[in-house]
Amino acid sequence: MPLTSWRCLVVLLLFVLVHSLPPVIKIGAIFTQDQKDSSTEWAFKYAVYRINKDKHLLPETTLVYDIQYVPKDDSFHASKKACQQVEFGVQAVFGPSDPMLGAHIHSICDALDIPHLEARVDLEAEYREFSINLHPSQPLLNKALQDVMTYLNWTKVAVIYEQDYGLVKLRELVRAPSKRDVEIHLRQADPDTYRAVLKEIKTKEIHNLIVDTRPEHMHHFLRGILQLQMND
């Protein structure tokens, strides 16, 4: 079949698919309670608004969303909210970004063949048929950090992480073979111990840091950097 005929066939199929959609498509979104009115929630709402506004995308269909909030680290309530949204008739689910909760919601969507859109750290590498994860792959992030360390000729680096999960994310970075010896110091810290850990790092004359901490705690960390005059 000529290329022009293939193009016409694809355009025709897309036309049929778009015009065969229902007039209303319900989308579910699950956020943790600390994400209420956050940039993530507003980005989701804005995306739905833009799609509805651009009639070239879905000319005869309107997206409506149902947002539910769940406690962090509470997989039971998250699963219950997801099941309620399925009963409500959602045809896709967005979130949550919490790694543990996201895995539970993905399992429900996968079992029911419901598309699942998420943006979370996921250490599982296997292909998932009904899931799209917008978060960069952790192995690729670790590879990028390795490239930066090599390019900048780092020989000593401190890796500071807040949660145990942070160490799991960075384990491949620590284990990965390097073209030259790199002295890596691992330290777990939180806002109560940032200053003590940074003081130890300064004493060891380590000037290169990789930090994995909660965004809401970053200002505490930077304050410790300034107080110890480590911002050269």
UniProtKB/TrEMBL annotation:
Spell out the protein name for this chain.
Receptor ligand binding region domain-containing protein
Q: Which residues form the Receptor ligand binding region domain?
A: 43-232
Matches recorded under Gene3D superfamilies: 3.40.50.2300
The UniProt entry, under Pfam families, shows: ANF_receptor (PF01094)
Q: Which residues cross the membrane?
A: none
- Give the primary localization class: membrane
Name the lineage.
Eukaryota, Metazoa, Ecdysozoa, Arthropoda, Hexapoda
Q: Would you name any one GO CC term?
A: membrane
Any keyword Transmembrane? yes
Give the signal sequence positions.
Answer: 1-20
Give the organism the record lists: Cuerna arida
Among InterPro entries, the record links this protein to: ANF_lig-bd_rcpt (IPR001828), Peripla_BP_I (IPR028082)
- Keyword entries, A-Z: Membrane, Signal, Transmembrane, Transmembrane helix
